[in-house]
């Protein structure tokens, strides 16, 4: 973890991946971690993917799901690792419990903004002027548009964070945007702007920072408050905070250069879509309907800039 604001609090250096608390195995970053919603998502998209998009999109298979993850309750724990695929499809409730299971907690909005603005107190991690490509935000493509022909539908599709535009993945691994780091002393926090939205501790529900396809230049002030904590979609992730200075026992992050825990394969398609991800489970042979009004299906995020720290 990185000590922020003179050690007033600490924040995870990277966006979190979720692991199973009982075994330590990485949970798939492409599916909800709760068993009921995972099965519902598999049932819907194992067949639903063949009804939307062009011929290439329909041929794009579901990402690998480890067989052990199905049919059992998992207690998700948040882990911060360099070079890992961060977990999407996270509700605010799961984010809160995953941080608690790691001996941490969700960051407050004020803590998130403070950490993001860095010691120089700038709108972006790298300064006060927007630099295209410095952080993984405001990307030209949208994964739902690529797969479904419509950016506003199908936000629980497990394939969304595997989409590439040209040869570039939309979702990047942690630490893969070296300019997008908020400096604190000799250390830094990565990707507080873009990549995935990150849940923060607001009773009504809020996530901060923006994600790769959000058309925002609000930088560290980007904040969405239009969804309850039960909400999830492909773009919602988690990062944890902790009171006081970091301690060796609490800091579970790998130093730069250490091997990352597995986050699944990252296949490449013909065109912009990945090829088959390999062996593994890709869904059941039964179909259930996912209500279009359910979390993640047709929602648009309304962004609300947070008041800047002075």
From TrEMBL:
Q: Which residues form the Sulfatase-modifying factor enzyme-like domain?
A: 95-202
InterPro entries recorded for this chain?
A: CTDL_fold (IPR016187), SUMF_dom (IPR005532), SUMF_sf (IPR042095)
Q: Where is this region: Disordered?
A: 245-310
Q: Which residues form a coiled coil?
A: none
Q: For bias kind Basic and acidic residues, which ranges apply? A: 273-291, 300-310
Which Pfam families is this protein grouped with?
Answer: FGE-sulfatase
Name of the protein in its database record: Sulfatase-modifying factor enzyme-like domain-containing protein
């Amino acid at each position: 973890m990185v000590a922020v604001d003179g050690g007033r609090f600490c924040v995870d250096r990277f966006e979190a991946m979720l692991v199973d608390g009982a075994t330590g195995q990485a949970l798939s970053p492409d599916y909800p971690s709760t068993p009921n919603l995972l099965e519902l998502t598999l049932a819907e998209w194992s067949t639903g993917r063949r009804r939307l998009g062009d011929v290439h999109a329909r041929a794009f298979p579901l990402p690998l799901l480890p067989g052990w993850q199905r049919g059992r309750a998992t207690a998700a724990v948040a882990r911060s690792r360099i070079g890992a695929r961060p977990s999407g499809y996270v509700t605010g409730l799961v984010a809160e419990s995953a941080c608690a299971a790691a001996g941490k907690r969700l960051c407050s909005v004020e803590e998130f903004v403070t950490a993001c603005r860095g010691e120089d107190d700038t709108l972006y991690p790298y300064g006060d002027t927007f630099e295209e490509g410095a952080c993984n935000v405001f990307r030209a493509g949208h994964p739902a548009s690529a797969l479904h022909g419509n950016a506003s539908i199908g936000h629980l599709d497990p394939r969304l964070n595997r989409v590439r535009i040209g040869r570039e993945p939309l979702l990047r691994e942690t630490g893969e945007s070296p300019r997008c780091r908020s400096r604190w002393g000799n250390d830094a926090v990565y990707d507080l702007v873009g990549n995935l939205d990150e849940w923060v501790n607001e009773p009504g529900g809020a996530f901060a920072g923006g994600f790769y396809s959000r058309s925002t230049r609000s930088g560290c002030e980007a904040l969405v408050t239009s969804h309850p904590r039960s909400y999830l979609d492909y773009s919602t992730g988690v990062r944890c905070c902790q009171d006081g200075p970091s301690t060796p026992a609490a800091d579970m992050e790998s130093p730069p250069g250490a091997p990352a825990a597995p986050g699944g394969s990252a296949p490449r398609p013909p065109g912009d879509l990945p090829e088959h991800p390999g062996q593994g489970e890709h869904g059941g042979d039964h179909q259930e309907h996912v209500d279009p009004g359910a979390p993640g299906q047709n929602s648009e995020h309304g962004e609300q800039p947070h008041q800047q720290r002075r």
